[in-house]
């Protein structure tokens, strides 16, 4: 019914549509400033910074999900795989595609010698939380996410 494979450059338009679908689901479509062109450069240039899997329907090879990951380094734990986005299109959720995709990322974590895998989930996304609980995932409540946008960093540097 479904098959998982490593993502290719030609998959990026479909993957980007999934990213936009996720942003809409998370009530933040205005936050997506990335593009297919930037994803191509960042993932398929001389120094790729991310990798991804796609899950397709076997009957028509249409992409119905993606898992985008990269590596980070924890001074406490060592090399970790960070699952940036894990998306299954709304129509295909609950049919087994998500399980196949998630387990491909779990296998990649071990294949690449990582000490573990990390990701985030919104506290209101009960279906996703329930899915991750089936795998025995730990949920942390103490850490706050912090970020600065490039424009903000540039303004800070200019004002020094």
Automatic annotation (TrEMBL):
GO terms for molecular function: N-acetyltransferase activity. PANTHER family: DIAMINE N-ACETYLTRANSFERASE, GH14572P-RELATED. InterPro entries: Acyl_CoA_acyltransferase, Diverse_Substrate_AcTransf, GNAT_dom. This is Acetyltransferase (GNAT) family protein. Keywords: Acyltransferase, Transferase. PROSITE patterns: GNAT (PS51186). It holds the Pfam family Acetyltransf_1. Belongs to the acetyltransferase family.
């Amino acid at each position: 019914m479904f098959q998982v494979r490593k993502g290719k450059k030609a998959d990026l338009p479909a993957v980007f549509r999934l990213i936009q679908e996720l942003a809409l689901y998370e009530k933040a479509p205005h936050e997506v400033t990335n593009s297919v062109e930037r994803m191509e450069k960042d993932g398929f240039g001389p120094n790729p910074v991310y990798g991804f899997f796609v899950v397709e329907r076997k009957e028509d090879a249409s992409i119905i999900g993606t898992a985008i990951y990269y590596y980070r380094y924890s001074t406490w734990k060592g090399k970790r795989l960070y699952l940036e986005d894990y998306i299954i299109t709304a129509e295909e959720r609950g049919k087994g595609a998500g399980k196949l995709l998630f387990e491909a990322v779990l296998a990649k974590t071990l294949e690449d010698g990582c000490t573990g895998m990390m990701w985030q989930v919104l506290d209101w996304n009960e279906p996703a939380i329930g899915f991750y609980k089936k795998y025995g995932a730990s949920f942390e409540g103490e850490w706050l996410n912090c970020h600065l946008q490039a424009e903000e960093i540039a303004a800070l540097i200019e004002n020094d």
